[in-house]
From TrEMBL:
SUPFAM superfamilies membership: Glyceraldehyde-3-phosphate dehydrogenase-like, C-terminal domain (SSF55347), NAD(P)-binding Rossmann-fold domains (SSF51735)
Record bears the keyword Oxidoreductase: yes
Protein name: Inositol 2-dehydrogenase
Domain Gfo/Idh/MocA-like oxidoreductase bacterial type C-terminal: 206-453
InterPro entries documented for this protein: Gfo/Idh/MocA-like_OxRdtase_N, Gfo/Idh/MocA_oxidrdct_glycsds, Gfo/Idh/MocA_OxRdtase_bact_C, NAD(P)-bd_dom_sf, TAT_signal
Domain Gfo/Idh/MocA-like oxidoreductase N-terminal: 60-163
MF terms in GO: inositol 2-dehydrogenase (NAD+) activity; nucleotide binding
The species this protein was found in: Stieleria bergensis
């Protein structure tokens, strides 16, 4: 199928109620996705393959065929090509340069799981090349990048899914939470607290040789040219097989050059759900105040003065003034999850539980039929890729659209800017700029390194 053509009509089943079919969808003839002929299945490519890149690829096998993979680390690229080629699947073509993927006319959509500082360039160029886009969260490195992506979605008409899976795959409890708030079960909301974990500082990380197979210059891409740094101790568990401390694989989230620390990592999940519940997906805060925080290195004029250690905040407590006099607290203390507090009670939700007196009241006063579907906008998909493909078919934006994602991510970006500048920021959610602070507004965008500018 051509990347500019909608998919044939498919119908998704509701995830929570479906037994034995969770995550599956069916064509108009009732055939499961796995039974579709090759010319009925969309053709995908993944750009950026370590950890989450492989996760979203492997979860998509039942829905799509993968014609190409791209990664700047040759070892990662070949390992993942081999894994895709198992179980009778065709081994996809491999590329070190993602632009070769975008040049292919047979690819309908790309999945982007590169480090955050690469997201916008690849996503914009993919849309201009006629591809629909699934991009991992956090979508952007800066607020202005989000505005550009929104413009390109409108200009090109492409379907764009942000990989905030908490809205679907791990989201049944979160959908219940959004429904609880929007149905007024805890009265008028006064406060919402997002617990998103602290981060450990690093020791001094020395310059060392670039690992064999890694194109370090291309990994840096739009970011400033710096030396590769790593310590020999290896990371265990998720993200294993790479140095525990480095300025590259996995640890990139701890550097402002490539990401935004825990604020844009876990914040992209919990602040998103909080804004959804509050009905604040088309607006933003009026003020962001850093109450308590720890930066692991010294800063001057908002820039780190030390370049051999992690520089994102390790601990923080941020107060965000939201519409309707709601106070949002983003904190690294306490349980990871979201606490909603209203005039009639409070409850807590995370990926493992939803608890509180209002939840106990479900025994006698359950949520009404259709409440979850009303929040989701239709039958709930248990698979984020399935929801994306449904959007490709209908040419409607999926559950994690760029506009709602960028609005909540602005809160996370502003929190980081406020800590870096050591002051509260007043925000104009209509103009999407800091009020009366030119220095802070200078952090809304970031210049790309020469040779890695976005090709518009």
């Amino acid at each position: 199928m051509s990347g500019s053509q909608p998919l044939s009509r498919r119908r998704f089943v509701q995830s929570a109620a479906a037994v034995g079919t969770a995550g599956m969808y069916f064509t108009s003839t009732g055939r499961a996705a796995a039974d579709l002929s090759p010319n009925e299945r969309p053709v995908f490519a993944t750009i950026g393959l370590r950890n989450q890149g492989w996760s979203i690829t492997s979860k998509s096998f039942r829905f799509a065929d993968f014609a190409a993979l791209a990664d700047v680390d040759q070892n990662v690229l070949e390992q993942n090509r081999s894994k895709v080629g198992r179980d009778g699947r065709k081994t996809p073509d491999g590329y070190a340069d993602y632009r070769e993927v975008l040049d292919r006319k047979d690819i309908d959509a790309v999945m982007i799981a590169t480090p955050d500082h690469w997201h916008t360039k690849i996503a914009v160029e993919a849309m201009l090349a006629g591809k629909d886009v699934y991009c991992e969260k956090p979508l952007t490195l800066t607020i202005d990048e989000g505005k550009l992506i929104e413009q390109m979605v409108k200009k090109t008409g492409r379907v764009f899914q942000v990989g905030t899976m908490q809205r679907s795959e791990s989201g049944q409890r979160f959908l219940q939470a959004v429904a609880m708030v929007q149905l007024g079960r805890i009265g008028t909301i006064k406060r919402v607290t997002c617990g998103i974990n602290s981060m450990s500082p690093s020791p001094v990380i020395p310059v060392t040789d670039v690992p064999k197979g890694l194109d370090w210059d291309r990994w840096l891409g739009p970011a400033p040219k710096v030396d590769y740094r790593a310590l020999p101790e290896m990371r265990k568990g998720y993200g294993g097989g790479v140095p525990l401390y480095s300025n590259c694989h996995y640890a990139f989230r701890n550097w402002h050059e490539y990401s935004g620390g825990k604020l844009t990592d876990w914040g992209a999940h919990h602040v998103d759900i909080a804004c959804w519940a509050l009905g604040a997906t088309e607006t933003g805060p009026s003020k962001v105040t850093p109450l308590e925080y720890t930066l692991p290195v010294n800063y001057k004029d908002g820039q780190p003065t030390v370049h051999d250690q992690y520089n994102a905040a390790t601990k923080f407590k941020i107060k965000v003034d939201m519409p309707n006099d709601v106070e949002m607290i983003i904190t690294s203390e306490g349980d990871n999850g979201i606490m909603f507090e209203g005039t009639k009670g409070r409850f807590f939700v995370n990926r493992g539980k939803i608890v509180g007196k209002p939840i106990e009241d479900w025994k006698t006063n359950p949520l009404p039929d259709g409440a979850i579907e009303n929040v989701y906008g239709g039958p709930v998909s248990a698979n984020h890729t399935a929801n994306f493909i449904e959007g490709m078919r209908s040419r409607k934006q999926p559950i994690s659209d760029v506009w709602s994602h960028n609005r909540m991510l602005e809160i996370c970006h502003l929190s980081n800017i406020a800590m870096r500048l050591d002051r509260a920021l007043e925000w104009d959610p209509a103009k999407r700029e800091v009020i009366g602070d030119s220095q802070a507004n200078g952090f809304l965008s970031r210049e790309s390194r020469k040779g890695y500018e976005i090709n518009l």
